[in-house]
Amino acid sequence: MQTIALTLGAGGARGLSHIHVIRAFEELGVRPVAVSGASIGAIIGAAYCAGMSANHLEDHIKSVLADPLGLLRDVFRAGPDSLKAFFKDGGPRIGQFNLEGILEAVLPDDIPPTFEELDIPLKISATDFYAGRATVLDKGDLWFAMAASSVIPGVFLPVERDGRFYIDGSATDPCPMELVQDLADHVVAVDVSGGITGDATKRPSMFEASYAAGQMMQQSIIRSKASNCPKTILLRPPVAAFFALDFHKAKEVLAQTAPLKEEAKRVIDAAQRNAS
Asked: CA-CA distance, 21 to 259, in Å (whole number)?
């Protein structure tokens, strides 16, 4: 049998569809030899590599979102440590929130503190802001790495470690398939970047144009990466109708992308049996 690695791409709430791919691996009794991820893909990848099942992941997400007021309370508790820190970081804006604190409040305790404690090797892509390039995180502090890979610019504060500042991995490597190319015979990669939707006869709003431009750039990066990664089988679930912060639509995202499980099962089974 051929070995398979798994790559889970960035996309915010759209990345909840990654759960279907994890369920496909489970139902086939196949375990990837390595996982890579960016942003939401890094977070779900970490949970999977820690031993969480697809059902456990889905149940946890639904339980967190079932209490929106409690979730909002946890988010505000994860805000600035003090009034001084609040104004030092730029004053009143949503970007005051520190993602490391929010992740600690909403993610399950099943995820261990370090990469070394995971059941499956994991590589996370983040963006080194001042270097302007992708950085691979695969050792030491796992929770820092998840936060570093997931800090959406304009929404969360950049994460700092050892004098370096990091922003969302989607800025430079939204579907980091190349990180596991040399670790398996085949790579199953899941691209959950958004697409263009709406009435083609109407002028897009400023927000729609700005948001779509970012998605187009991500898709361009992914196409370029895929063309240089011949071992990769790229899956693209239908997620264009959702925005990155549509976590309140988790049930709709999961329902709309449900066919991804069977598609992934076919791809995984074919890749395992491919001796070429």
From this structure: 10
pLDDT tens-digit series, residues 200-253: 899 988 888 888 888 888 999 999 999 999 999 999 999 999 999 899 899 999
Count of H-run helices and E-run strands, the chain: 10, 8
- Cα separation of 62 and 44, whole Å? 14
Cα 72 to Cα 69: distance, rounded to the nearest angstrom? 5
**Whole-angstrom distance, CA of residue 19 vs CA of residue 8:** 10
Residues 238, 172, 189, 150, CA torsion sign: negative
**Nearest in space to 44 (alpha carbons), one of 75, 6, 73, 72:** 6
Q: Report the distance separating Cα 264 and Cα 22, nearest Å.
A: 9
Lowest mean pLDDT among 17-21, 185-189, 209-213: 209-213
